[in-house]
Write a structure and sequence with these properties.
Number of helices: 2
Largest sheet: 6 strands, antiparallel
Helix content: 10-25%
Strand order of the largest sheet: 4-9-8-7-6-5
Number of strands: 9
Shape: globular
Radius of gyration: 16 Å
Structural class: alpha+beta
Order of helices and strands: EEEEHEEEEEH
């Protein structure tokens, strides 16, 4: 059962990282079976939280399964998807520059976004966990990212209402250098590939 829109989630990690979810999708932090997303901004304790300048570009959900599968989905746990990522991150994560080893907190990753409809773009990010939400994480864009520094992408694996593994991705931008239509198209194609790759891995 999904928690209704309008509630706010606050999760605090043991190291003092605060994550405040936006009303769009906030819900119980201890639910590993639901679409749990994020903070409009996340900073170390004591740092001023400033969400100003973030604009939602997309909010997408994908069923985790091979694209050519003739069945509705996989009845596997979100934890199994995370276990696969921690075994080999870039085996399923589809963006150029992703490391094989699962990222550590605040690790910089020099991603590169490439598509047939626009030239490759620098996309450096830093990885952040979401406290006790073990099946979710987010990236914050560094200076030089085509979405603009401070942009964020949130990922979450959860069990959908029909019992199948789902991937939920939300993207927020600050000062993108790519038109929204192309930017969203790239994101949707990449995250669909992510769901496909994970489906192949777990099938």
């Amino acid at each position: 059962m999904r928690i209704s829109t309008g509630k706010i989630l606050t999760a605090v990690t043991a190291v003092g990282v605060l994550a405040t979810a936006t009303p769009a999708q906030a819900q119980s932090a201890d639910s590993a079976q639901q679409p749990v997303t994020k903070a409009a901004a996340t900073h170390s304790a004591g740092t001023k939280v400033a969400a100003a300048g973030l604009r939602k570009l997309y909010d997408e959900r994908f069923t985790v399964k091979p694209n050519n599968a003739h069945y509705p989905g996989l009845r596997v746990s979100p934890a199994k998807a995370m276990k696969s990522l921690k075994h080999c991150f870039n085996c399923t994560f589809p963006v150029k520059g992703a490391p094989k080893k699962f990222p550590k907190e605040n690790q910089r990753i020099n991603l590169e976004a490439c598509a047939v409809f626009f030239a490759c773009k620098d996309a450096p990010v830093r990885y952040h966990g979401l406290g006790n939400m073990k099946n979710a994480w987010y990236f914050t864009a560094e200076k030089g990212h085509f979405d603009g520094a401070g942009s964020k992408v949130y990922f979450n694996f959860y069990t959908g209402s029909k019992g199948y593994l789902e991937l939920h991705v939300e993207g927020y931008v600050t000062h993108p250098s790519v038109p929204d239509s192309l930017n969203k198209r790239f994101a949707v194609e990449k995250w669909q590939s992510f769901a496909h790759n994970m489906g192949v891995e777990l099938d």
